[in-house]
Model the fold of this input.
Amino acid sequence: MASSNSFDDARLPISARTRHTLDPCVVLMKQLISQHAAKWADDPRGIFSLAQGVVHWRAPQSAYEALERAVRENMDAAPDGSGGYGMDGAVGGGDGRIIHTYCPDEGYPPLLDALKEKLERENGVPDAHVMVTSGANQAFVNCVLTLLDEADCKGNISKCVVFEPYYFNHVMAVQSARGGRGCGGTATPPTTIDAGSIEGLLVGPTNHGVPDLEWLRSKLEEHKYEDSGNAIRMVTLVNPGNPTGVALPYQFLEQMMQLTKEYGVWLVMDNTYEHFDVTGKNTLPNAGDAAPEYPCFDEGHVINIFSFSKGYAMAGFRVGYVALSSKNGETGRGTQAYEEMLKIQDTIAICTSRISQMAALGALDAGRDWVYEQVKTLDEGRAAILEAMSLLEEIIGGDGAMYVMGKLPDGADDQNFASSLVEDYGVAVIPGSFCGLPGWIRVCYSNLPPEDCKIAAARLKKGILQLTVK
Done:
């Protein structure tokens, strides 16, 4: 008989999928920092975090001005909110007058209009179906719940491909919604469940952070049904990469797009770090000045995800968005998926906070060039982190997003290593095992202003020197 506090207690069971979902590593690292904070209390700088992917700057002034304007309009509005921006999207007086109410599920109409213009101008995706979400993570969950089946036409759980090292929250979304114990990767022991019939995840290899397209082709072929369809339903790619810090060139992305199109599989592109393509790898070849800054694909099988959390420094506002192609009108798969996704949106969030969306609209006024100016401030910190990690036998990243990954000596426990860095050296990183790559660490260089980042890099270097001595 199970004990009263057993997970398997039949009286109050807890979902097996949730229990087999990865632990939230950022939460665990924050707990570890709190646990050892007293030891570093005499240092006014305390423990430096190079763990969570955040930026050291604040949102643009235009975002706060929009926020202030909305709040003042709300405070000055009549009790019935008359003259405001109604749920039906009809323009009235000051839009801030009813910030306390729901807006349309798909988003605040002026923001939707601005995002459609941005997608066409900066990403080369015209007339997209856009849905504003509570961050890019919710956008991905929307995709998982919209696209993956409990049982497809052959009775199999439809599968999602991710590449190792993977973004942990993507894996957690698939695990919690569709299964995936063991992840198919190296971080956890293989499951005893028949992976072919129940696992919702397929984890593919990378070479220095670049996904293996030959492996992907082989799996798409292996899981192809003779009549039509595929057990693989969606392929996920983050570019520039989290956790890899690797930016992929346009030609590679185009190959992946064509490959998934050939097999009739959705390609979910997470473009959260579109502003952090440091060396400009994702650019159209032989394109003129009118080319989009960060080209994405306007294809019926491609779903693009974006975020305001990174470049615009609005992580706490929780605003992201998903864009689907409107090609082929009502019969297009992008249109149909968008309409079905509205069910998920209405169930999870109903809508993203109206006031956050108004602040995001204000942020767009600052423009892409404003973001690029902030990104330039990462150069010194990135150089310091790369120099510190050069002591390791292998590193990847540094040319995209805000991360560098480093390989620890053979046999090193990355979680123990990360714990020692916090306690003894006052710097926090993410253990690679949470990304499916045990024996590695992920370091974020955007969390701190340049001078602090250089101090954190020195602590990291000292820790690497002393903890990796055999």
